[in-house]
Every structure is written in C-alpha cells, then in structure tokens.
What we know:
Pathway: Purine metabolism; purine nucleoside salvage. With about 300 residues, the protein is of the alpha/beta class. It has a single domain, classed as Nucleoside phosphorylase domain (Rossmann fold). The protein has helices at about 15-30, 105, 110-115, 150, 180-190, 215-220, 230-240, 265-290, and strands at about 35-40, 55-60, 75-85, 85-90, 120-130, 140-145, 195-205, 225-230, 245-255. Strands 5-8-7-6-9 form a 5-stranded mixed beta barrel. Helix 1 packs across helix 3 (about 110-115) and helix 5 (about 180-190) packs across helix 8. The protein is globular. The protein starts with 16 loop residues before the first helix and ends in a 6-residue tail after the last helix. The model has no long low-confidence stretch (mean pLDDT about 90). It binds 1-O-phosphono-alpha-D-ribofuranose and hypoxanthine. Hypoxanthine binds near residues 126, 128, 227, 228 and 229.
Amino acid sequence: LNTKKQAPTVNSNCCSFEDYKLTTEWLLNQTSHRPKVAVICGSGLGLLANAVNNRQSFRYEDIPNFPVSTIPGHEGCLVFGTIKDQCCVFMQGRVHLYEGYSLCKVTFPVRIFKLLGVETLVVTNASGGICQDYKVGDIMVIKDHINLPGFAGQHPLCGPNDERFGVRFPCMSDAYSKDLRRLALDISSEMGCSDFVREGVYCMVSGPNFETIAEARMLQVLGCDAVGMSTVPEVTVAKHCGIRVFGLSLITNKVSLDYSREEMVNHEDVLLTGKMRAEFLQKLVATLIIRCNHQEQ
Ligand SMILES: O=P(O)(O)O[C@H]1O[C@H](CO)[C@@H](O)[C@H]1O
Ligand code: HPA
C-alpha cells in the first residue's frame, strides 16, 4: 500500500521552479542591472518609473512567462535603472485576479525579483478610502492588510509549498517593514506633506466591481481604511520568500458608505487622481529607495 500523501492537484501552483529560473536567466542575459529594490506601480502610477536613470525597459509580452496587463493605466513595461547609486526595477503596471490570471501568475514577478537578488519590494496601488477622515489624494502608508479573497481560499500560497522560496506557514504579523514605514513618514514630514500622508489598513477584494454600500459598510466594521483589488497577493509572496516590504495606497476616491451620496466611482477618475499626486509619490518613492538600508530585514 502506498501511504505517501499525495499533493492535491486543485489550486496547485501553475508555475514550476524551472519557469521562474528560465525567466530570471532570460532577464540576467538581457541586462547588466542587478536590482536590490523592486517597485510595483499601481493603476495610473507608472510615472513612478520616470525617476530612474540608465533606463532599460522590456515589454511584458517580450519576457518569457511574464503575465501581460490588460487594463488601462497599466503600461506593461519592466524598467531597470538606477536612482543615485541604487539599482532598481519598476513594474509599470501589474496584473490582477479579476483579469483572469491565477494568483500564481499574479505573483510570478515577485519570485522573479527574489531570484534576481531583490531585497526590498515597494508596492503601490490606487484604492478607495473607507476611513471617513481620508480625502481624495491622500496617501496611506500600508501598516497591515486584510486578505479577504485569502479567507475564501483564493490565496497565492495554496498548493504544494516550494521550500526553495519559503516555509509552509509564513508569519504575516510583520508583513510591512516598521523601519520603512517610519522612514516614509519622516520623508513626508521633511517634504512638508504630513497633512495628506496617513497610515492604515488595506483590504483586498477580488473586484472587478467597486463595492456596494453594504459591502463598504462591512469593510469599515472589519477595520479597513482603504480597499482595492490588488497588492495583498504580491506582499504575501514577497514576505514568504524573505523580501522586505513597503506599501503605499493612493486614495483615488471616497467609498460610498451612505445611500444618499450621489457620486459614482469609475476607473477613469481613479487614473486622474494618480496624475494629480504623481510628482509627490515619485519623490517619496525615490527618496525612500535612496535612504533605505538593505542590511536591515
Ligand atoms: O490596485 P491597482 O492595481 O492600483 O488598481 C486599482 O484600480 C483599479 C480600479 O480602478 C483596480 O484594479 C484596483 O485594484
Ligand atoms: O473604491 C475602490 N474599491 C476597490 N478598488 C479600488 N481601486 C481604486 N478605488 C477602489
């Protein structure tokens, strides 16, 4: 009798270690950049990559195995370069669960970053403000998150665990680096922008529809300050493989919690808010990259 436990096939990871290796080797052969920091640019935030010098850019569709963005505001370019003497890589655009990608594909780039030698990941996103104090254009330093799809089994680490990346049961209580959160708040205060920079809890929903009022009220009760349709899978996979994480949410709209409110959210307005705060966000992220110390974990 074969008593060896069989790994389940449902929900198992769709990318093999060989897939990750192939993509990494392809990139290492194409560029001499060896980034220590990676940045994922959220909806309308691709401009963040304009901070780099010595730029070398690849379209996602030209990179073997790389998932391709399908929505406006996500350019789909992987940009290598330097900021001062820091070598970094920017993803101009990400992919989402609601586009039809598995969470394994959604987080594929994060494991590529790991294999490229990245030690720090900066995630950014556009999100709706649940916290009543938040205004459109505010920036929320992510202190913690709620993985709502994860509670329902839509989790990037479901399936056989590859020990080469991390342990079966990773700890998430310190997912967002305290040092980098403090540094970001210090930089914002030096820039005189503390009045619109806050700290809070991000909640991921699967989307693609924006929340109903009843759903928004539920998220408020759960302790969410901002809501979006991304980021959490990337952060989870980064933390699993030992990458230090820092996250920023741009509040692009206020989420309706009240049936008498008439304003309706749409993706075009989300992208417009991104443009409004692009300059500040670019400076904040660039300064953070210059000042973050890679020895701290
Ligand atoms: O999270 P990012 O990629 O910034 O995008 C946000 O903006 C889109 C909705 O306008 C959704 O995809 C939401 O998640
Ligand atoms: O209000 C929102 N809800 C979910 N995702 C979002 N991304 C930007 N705004 C929102």
